[in-house]
Amino acid sequence: MTPQVTQLGKTFAARVTGIDLRQVPDAATHAWIEQQLARWGVLSFGPQRIDDSQQEAVIELFGPPFATNFGEIATGHPHFYDITTVDESGAPIVADSPRGLTLLANAQWHTDGSQLQPPTRVSILHARVLPPTPPPTEYANMCAAWDALPPAMQREAEQLSVVHSIAWSREQIGFRDISPESLKLRPPVVHPLVRTNPITGRKSLYLASHASHPVGWPVKEGRAYIHALVAHATQPEFVYSHAWCADELVMWDDRWTMHRATPYDGVQPRKLRWCGAVELEPV
């Protein structure tokens, strides 16, 4: 069956049909998916009844799997995190526990893995357990946000690199008890504020809740500048809200999208399994 693409958002995000991810895509199909990621940023593959080994095989097409060694939400699998409301025994996760606060950080606008070097390039989230009315996930088009900046702001932004820090993103939600082991694995790193997609040639902002301040700026002033850019980039015209369905797999390009979870306090459990592929070279 020939893959088909249907646009979902106003400027980005699309649904893909005609690809069964239970079988590892061949080279031609993988190349086609890469082109669609570059064009749409966020791809929904609809119901995909895949297991862990199949999900891992898909992410490995896009680069080395992200090492999920952050102790506060580790699942025991080296390449998966669970975005979940319940623990492995099915008990609700305590909101103010280290795991609960770490999961709460997903409600901030963020880019997966920007606190690392090399960062995450592609992310996959697979719906394993959904409540009857699952909360949406929101995505922001960072290319469109870049295009909408005044030329003077674009020129300034292109000259800047930004410090990304896991400690800063967690501090913003009041979580200061990150384990020393986790902090040692994730020291602050620096990334350019503006990136260029190697396939489309389009420029985009590269932001995240981890983004603290431009290199060389006073921290307070720099954080205010980043906060203003995030507010600009997440205006309604740049945002797509994705409604989940059972067994759905969603893939996105972390180079030019941000995303966030939306609030959910229902009693029915929700579990989505995340994995990512990292860049081959530092950014």
Record keyword descriptors for this entry.
283 residues, alpha+beta, Double-stranded beta-helix, 15 strands
Describe this protein's structure.
This protein has 8 helices and 15 strands. The protein is of the alpha+beta class and 283 residues long. The chain has a single domain, classed as Double-stranded beta-helix (4-Layer Sandwich), CATH 3.60.130. The strands form 4 sheets. The chain has a 7-stranded mixed beta sheet, covered by helices on one side. It has a 3-stranded antiparallel beta sheet with strand order 12-6-14. A 3-stranded antiparallel beta sheet has the order 8-7-11. Strand 2 (14-17), helix 1 and strand 3 (42-47) form a beta-alpha-beta unit. The protein starts with a strand and ends in a 5-residue tail after the last strand. The model has no long low-confidence stretch (mean pLDDT 94).
Question: Brief overview, please?
Answer:
This protein has 283 residues and is of the alpha+beta class.
The overall pLDDT average reads 94
Number of domains: 1
Question: What is the correct CATH architecture?
Answer: 4-Layer Sandwich
| Tally of DSSP helical segments | 8
- The level 1 CATH classification is Alpha Beta
β-strand percent reads 25-35%
Annotated CATH homologous superfamily: Clavaminate synthase-like
How would you sum up the major sheet?
A: 7 strands, mixed
Low-confidence stretches: none
User: What would you call the shape?
Assistant: globular
Strand order of the largest sheet: 1-2-3-13-5-15-4
Number of E-type strands:
15
What value does the Rg take, in angstroms?
18 Å
End-to-end distance, in Å?
Answer: 37 Å
Order of helices and strands: EEHEHEHEEHHEHHEEEEHEEEE
CATH topology type: Double-stranded beta-helix
Fraction of helical residues: 10-25%
